[in-house]
Amino acid sequence: MMKYIIRPVIENDIAFLWDMLYESLFAPEGQEPFNKEIINEPLISKYVEGWGRPGDFGFIAMNNEDKPVGSVTARYFSESNKGYGFIDKDVPELGMAILKEYRGTGIGTALLEELFKEARRKKIGRISLSVDPSNKAAMRLYQRFGFEEVGKIGTSLTMVANLVDFDGQDRN
Fold first, then answer.
1. HSE of 53 in the Cβ direction (CA atoms, 13 Å)?
2. CA atoms lying within 13 Å on the CB side of residue 37
């Protein structure tokens, strides 16, 4: 069993968030990975640039050597500065990645559980994301957390999870 802890993102984590932004860019098996410079493109960099603005929150998974191995973040975007999974200015967009050698160990589940707990504490009703449907592991994880497809942009699906039912009860 892998040992890890989940803690909130702090200012010292911003360089790691940039690394995780690159890790989150899915390239199907056999396809050339993206050039690392892609994270500097405005449509991508917006997920980390200026981290710490009002509404930003997230968590880092640390291994037993106190090294970061994964992250999950939630960030609000506007109609004029949409993210790939944009639904509405009041719905934060999730970003998530785990270092390859730590995938499939339960860290993704633990990160999402912590993010959902914090989102509920903040009285956030929905969270959106964008995912490549051929990323089967990510799709299974997101569906387990109640994310449902609401649209498609290019090759990516936009998905939304409702954190509370209309009667105010948790769904998960």
1. 11
2. 0
Contact 77, 114 (CB under 8 A): no
- Per-residue pLDDT, 65: 93
Q: How far is CA 31 from the centre of its chain?
A: 22
Strand partners, 159: 129, 149
In the chain, what is the straight-line distance between the N-terminal and C-terminal CA atoms, in Å?
A: 24
Identify the pLDDT of residue 62. 97
Q: What is the DSSP string of 133-170?
A: TT-HHHHHHHHHTT-EEEEEETTEEEEEEESB-TTS-B
Contact 65, 48 (CB under 8 A): no
pLDDT of residue 167: 40
Rounded to two decimals, the pTM is 0.89
Average pLDDT over residues 85-114: 94
Residue (of 154, 123, 122, 143) closest to 57 by Cα position? 122
Report the alpha-carbon distance of residue 73 to residue 83 in Å, rounded: 13
Share of the chain above pLDDT 70, in %: 92
Per-residue pLDDT of 140-159, as tens digits, reads: 999 999 999 999 888 889 99
Q: How far apart are CA 86 and CA 94, in angstroms?
A: 10
